[in-house]
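User: quick one, sequence for these tokens?
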């Protein structure tokens, strides 16, 4: 799995999902490594995305309060959809961050994209799940099925 998220705001929430052990995924890049990648410029970030997404079958967008507005999250969504990977989102605002607690629910990042010559929003075909107030339990009990469904749905796009 490739996880797409707003690092600065949501890394602690994302780590909770990774620690569930429901599905395997790459470890997130460290803050220092991410800063070095970004300093080398856009081409470096694009290469990093390509290399880390290359052999993944599914991209999971972990949606916090500002995720939908993040440039590189949008790029990862575009690349995932265009390359036919399984794709879906999970609202993570109800996962507690040790620094900030819960946050506001962010916008659906798939609303920013259109398909079918601009006639349809991507959010009408790519789900963004809300696991509820007990987000940890909701994600833990549904994540494996959401991944399987996304991979299967990608076959028919």
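Assistant:
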């Amino acid at each position: 799995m490739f996880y797409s998220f707003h690092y600065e705001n949501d890394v602690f929430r994302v780590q909770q999902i990774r620690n569930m052990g429901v599905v395997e995924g790459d470890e997130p890049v460290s803050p220092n490594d991410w800063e070095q990648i970004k300093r080398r410029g856009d081409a470096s970030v694009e290469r990093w995305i390509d290399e880390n997404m290359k052999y993944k079958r599914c991209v999971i967008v972990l949606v916090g309060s500002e995720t939908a507005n993040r440039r590189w999250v949008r790029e990862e969504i575009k690349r995932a959809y265009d390359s036919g990977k399984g794709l879906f989102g999970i609202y993570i605002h109800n996962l507690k961050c040790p620094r900030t607690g819960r946050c506001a629910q962010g916008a659906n990042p798939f609303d920013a994209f259109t398909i079918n010559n601009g006639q349809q929003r991507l959010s009408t075909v790519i789900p963004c799940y809300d696991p509820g107030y007990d987000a940890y339990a909701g994600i833990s009990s549904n994540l494996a099925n959401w991944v399987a469904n996304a991979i299967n749905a990608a076959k028919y796009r």
